[in-house]
Amino acid sequence: MVVFHSVTSGNSDGALRCSLQDFERYCGFFVQHLRVATFSRVVDLLQGPGELSGELAITFDDGYADNAELALEVLERWNLHATFFVSTGFMETNAQTYWDRNANIRSRWMSWAQVAQLASRGHEIGSHTVSHANLCELHSADVASELQRSSQDLLKRIGVMPRHFAVPFGRAFPSLEDAIKKARELGFRSVSLCRGGVADHANSALWIERWPIDPSAYLSPYGWMVDVVRECLARRPRGGRAIES
Question: Whole domain around residue 228: which residue ranges?
């Protein structure tokens, strides 16, 4: 599972902003070397008895307008599908995030028509809460409210009930298992993080690991792949076979 955030016509300048040129290179690399599947398909494999064999799901977090304006065309050119985890309270607003403000970037969010466009073209839409909430700072009831209201927003606005939830900020926290329980009670099939590492059967019953792509950290997608292989080798049981992802 890989994660992108914003796609820019400028240069890649970190994990949150990938240049259009670099995104194109990564999509071509994925098609050549991996089996790109929908997020739901990979979740099925992770939560079932079968083995993974190089499957990859492409995801986007937050709901930046450039996902529809720039990334969609590239995905369609390569015949790829992605899952877009949107913070529903940001859509059609001028909300400015602190991380964009710190980078002197104006936050631009999709319209609901753009979110619906992604869904109509076969891409999956998932929840990223309403306000991009830092769940470790919320009481249990507030976590449930963020998840429930985001689902209601998506159902009302685009007619889609989300089945996958990506934790904002992508980190584990002490009450993560309680948040996962709330998500399951609300009908979510998966909860995913964004802190690097490959997804495997070992932890998928609780959460799914995703790998944020930072093209500015690699000379090419092959550099990213080297890190993935290292991670797989580090997880290999002694005397056994490497865990596939």
Answer: 2-234
